Amino acid sequence: MIKRFCERCDKTTQDGHLWCSDRDCPAEQGYPVFDYGDYVADLKVIKIIAVWRTAVLYEAARNDEPVWLKVAHRDDECESRLKRDAKWVQLMAPRPPSFMQKFFAQPRLIHLAWLPPYPNKTDKAYGEVTVGDQTRVYSVFQAIPGSLLSHTLLENPNIWHTEAAGIITTVAAAMRLALDKELVHMGLTPDMIYVDKDSEGHYRATLLDYGWCFRPKDAANYNLAQMFRLVEPSYAAPEVLAQLGAQAVTPAADAYSLGMIFYEMLAGHTGYAATAVTRDDRLRQQVIANRTPLALKRPELAGAQVPAIIEQAIAPQKRFASIVDFQTTLVKVYGIPPIEKRTKPIRYYVALAIIGALLFSIVISGLYVLLNTAIRG
Question: What would the mean pLDDT of 197-214 be, rounded to a whole number?
């Protein structure tokens, strides 16, 4: 049986029904989720990583190999969004490393790496499978280490501002190619970002989803009403929540979302309190009216440029035109995030040992020949 998950209570049912003592909790509207041991095609579900308003991201296994599985909710627009995301990530899938590259450390990806949805060879970006009496749309990716940024913020609500800037800079870099194709994410939240600490203690970020892959000039191809309904109000730009139409949705909307995430990492709390689905209307009005002051009460930031940067990211009048402008400003202040020192694979040291052994044997053989020649001479 497919269970249900409540995004507010973080509860999962045992029998398909939810109940909560909070009278405002929309528990019965919880999202259907798979549980440990359930199968989606040839993929065995291990655990839930994130539950979004449009899909669920799972840790799974294929032939005992860890992978990540993204399954869209049963909704036409949710499924369309997943299909667009899967196609986009497939286009950016890194080429398999060459024989020589396998002996060296590979750079960490700043977005998920696409994997074929089926065990047999296919060029299709996403998979479709019948589970029970329902068809589910899904995509598959390489597993990565770390945790959701939202979970990291629960453990460390006040990330050091240089590290926070590095995370935002990396996410902007992951979105840059999509921006070049005039795509707007329109759904960036801390649950869309995965972070992991490297060997030197720096946070390294990975973008988990490319959102709605919305191209304003092709607005006729999208269900705008459904899209606007499913965005997360705490991080969505006011013009998106006001549903002013496709012409109002520009790349500046993603700059706003990144600004709100940047603010949350520094302030230790969200700019607008996250609420359940039934309270979305009230929260939308708060964001549109911009009634909540976003003040940073951190002494170490008093003389820094950070408050001004955040203000420029979220201000309706003088906002960054895109995430590229946001990224450029952060790099001017903080510089480019330091290059990660990746651990070399074991095969690198095995190859060195083999080469060393061969060279040693050649030297010994040469010395033997020289010595034998000298003795005979």
Answer: 94
Residue 320: pLDDT band (50, 70, 90) is very high
Measured distance CA(259)–CA(4) in Å, rounded: 32
Question: CA-based Rg of the chain, rounded to a whole angstrom?
Answer: 25
Closest by CA to 258, choosing from 149, 138, 102, is: 149
Checking if the pLDDT of 312 tops 80, the result is: yes
Give the burial string for 219-254 (b: 16+ CB within 10 Å, else e).
eeebebeebbebbbbbbbbbbbbeeeebeebbbbbb
What is the third-level CATH fold of 145-344? Answer: Transferase(Phosphotransferase); domain 1 (1.10.510)
- pLDDT digit string, tens, across residues 342-362: 666 677 677 778 888 888 888
358: which residues sit within 8 A by CB, 6+ positions away? none
- Tokens 């969505």 -> residue: 236
Ordered by start, the domain boundaries in the chain are 34-144, 145-344, 347-377
Other residues' Cβ atoms within 10 Å of the Cβ of residue 363: 10
Average pLDDT, the chain: 84
Query: Are 34-144 and 145-344 equal in CATH topology?
Result: no
For the entire predicted model, the pTM comes to 0.83
Could you say which DSSP state residue 148 is in? E
Q: Which amino acid does the sequence have at 330? A: L
Q: 348: Cβ–Cβ under 8 A, 6 or more apart, which residues?
A: 103, 104, 105
Of 200-214, 252-266, 300-314, the least confident: 300-314
Phi, psi of 49 (to 5 degrees): -100, -50
Q: What is the mean pLDDT of residues 329-347?
A: 81
The residue type of 104 is F
Contact 24, 279 (CB under 8 A): yes
Q: What is the mean pLDDT of residues 145-173?
A: 93
From 266, 233, 228, 257, select the one nearest 245 (Cα to Cα): 228
Q: The CATH number of 34-144 is which of 3.20.20.70, 3.30.200.20, 2.160.20.10, 1.10.10.60?
A: 3.30.200.20
